[in-house]
Amino acid sequence: MKRVKVAILGAGFIADIHLESYTRFVPEAEIAAVYARNADRAKAFADKHRIARHFSSVDELLQSTDVDVVDICLPNFMHREVTLKAAAAGKHIIIEKPLAVTLEEADEMIAACEAAGVKLMYAEELCFAPKYERARKLVEEGAVGQVYMLKQSEKHSGPHSDWFYDINQSGGGVLMDMGCHGIAWFRWMLKNSRAVSVTASMKTVLHKHRTRGEDNSIVIIEFENGVTGVVENSWAKQGGMDDRSEIHGLDGVAYADLFTGNSVLAYSKNGYGYAMEKTDTTIGWSFCIFEEAFNQGYPQELKHFIECVQHNREPLVTGKDGRDVLEIIYAAYASAGQGKKIMLPFNEKVEKPVDLWLHPTSITK
Q: Does some domain include residue 346?
């Protein structure tokens, strides 16, 4: 079967992981081009990964390159514009989290893809992470009985790129960056059971000098099937990456830790290279992750989408799923801002979700 030609839009940390995943695990895909806002960065990325074409203009890439799929690994504020252009050009789209900055943008993106007849997949890797998937199958096999609570946490000491800290580019802090993972995983585990209420607490505890967004958050979600989901996220946790989940049932419990048991325990006085950059998380004791991309589900999600394009199938995780996750994020910010439980549906119109936390009095009627 003909290989699917993919253009990677972005040349940062996540684009590097996607490229490695395609190259090593998705032979059905061919990386045809890369785009970055900075021309030198685009060329450096292309040279490093031996990609034939590189661009610093999305319009030129879409007009000049024969591609079937665009893989959007760009800052949040660019998601809407690039998705609309790609859909108009007839390209299938896989997009990194969060789907968009606002619900209005999400609706516009979904509608544009439907009108153009192109596939839109929300890239939620936790729905494909091997350990998490094994835990889900345990539940389906009845190992823990009736589930009454799910917990998921993702924590580290902060993102690699500056734009994450700029709420005008990201739309929020750690909840927008990582909380979306836990929320999407809850919905995946519960077969998209509807969320009915959200209660949240958030603070900026470590990065006050860098961001107005929250760097530590706790969100409690109640679903219509009676299950409670608790998602904890932090950019303030020292000692490296932490990503784990818990499934609590009436007859048992299951724990899945993406990194423990798949790492080398190491001590480094000065730190070591990590995905093209040195970070303070590698100083001292740390867990050097073996096959990090594979453990987190990136190759599996990308392979799934390429196969959807090849065989004209609907992705398991769609743009509409991404939109539902974003609505819960809205409700979490509103809950933290107003200090009360927020009922769903929740469709407050704001410039960016974090405003519901930072400026609750100017939004609440």
A: no
| pLDDT at residue 287 in the model | 62
Closest C-alpha among 124, 169, 166, 152 to residue 325: 124
User: Does one domain contain both 104 and 162?
Assistant: no
Six-digit token string for 1: 């079967």
| Residue listed under structure tokens 């890439």 | 61
Same domain for 288 and 304, yes or no, is no
Query: Residue 269 class from Cβ within 10 Å (0-12 exposed, 13-18 middle, 19+ buried)?
Result: exposed
Q: Are 21 and 119 in the same domain?
A: yes
CA atoms of 104 and 230, how far apart (whole Å):
26
In a shared domain, residues 132 and 276: yes
Same domain, 150 and 272: yes
> First and final CA of the chain: distance in angstroms?
57
* Digit-coded pLDDT (tens) for 188-213: 999 999 999 999 999 999 999 999 99
Domain-located, residue 344: no
Give dist(CA 287, CA 289) in Å, integer. 6
* CA 136, chain centre distance (Å): 19
Name the percent of the chain lying above pLDDT 70: 91
Whole-number Å distance between alpha carbons of 7 and 305: 14
**Cα 121 from Cα 135, distance rounded (Å):** 23
Q: Which residues contact 46 (CB under 8 A, 6 or more apart)?
A: 34, 52, 53, 54
Residue that the structure tokens 């060329």 belong to: 43
8 Å CB contact between 81 and 63: no
Residues 269 and 155 in one domain: yes
Instruction: State which amino acid sits at residue 349.
Output: K
Q: Does residue 334 form part of some domain?
A: no
Residue 217 structural domain: 127-292
Where does residue 59 rank: exposed (0-12), middle (13-18), buried (19+ CB within 10 A)?
exposed
Q: pTM of this prediction?
A: 0.91
- Residue 90 maps to which CATH number? 3.40.50.720
Q: Is residue 85 part of a domain?
A: yes
Query: Which among 77, 109, 78 is positioned nearest to 93, based on CA atoms?
Result: 109
